[in-house]
Amino acid sequence: MNSEKFGKAKDMTLGGFGLKETELFKDMEIEGHLIATLNHNDGRVEVRDLGKNIITTAASVLLARLIKDNMEPAHGAFGLAVGTGNIGWNPLLPPAATAAQTVLENELFRKTFQSVNFINGVVISASPTNVLDLTTFFTEAEAVGGLVEMGLVGGDATLVAGTGTLINYRTFPVINKPNTATLTITWRLTF
User: What is the domain range of residue 47?
Assistant: First the structure.
């Protein structure tokens, strides 16, 4: 039996170039981008590009759990949670999201995804790609209020606020969602 020993990745050299682990994996980032569409019952449509999200520190633990055993936890990504933020925040200029966030400051509503699709360029792909669109649709009666934060939740998440792992997090200037409008959030993840 041949037994090879492998050094830690940080001690590894690649092709004689002496790349360290941090250099080897520095370009391997998950990136998220959010689009919000508010459809008013009078026919007006507001589309807002909410920009890029923050991948939380807890997301890496969830990913490791999923890779180790695909039977536990129950979910990778479960749904979208939206909130009104900390009462002390300026809703027009909330503080920037950080990777240390573990729950929303003031969760208002959460819902499972309406659709999850692989994307190739700008179209839905029947084959797996490295781009995933997670879309959540809120009816007129759901998530009513001044929204300034949202996050993807997974792991052991349920529809109960604060459960599971906060995977991605984003703060943004207020979206005032009335009970006369629907809201669609598309969260695009690029791996």
Answer: 28-190
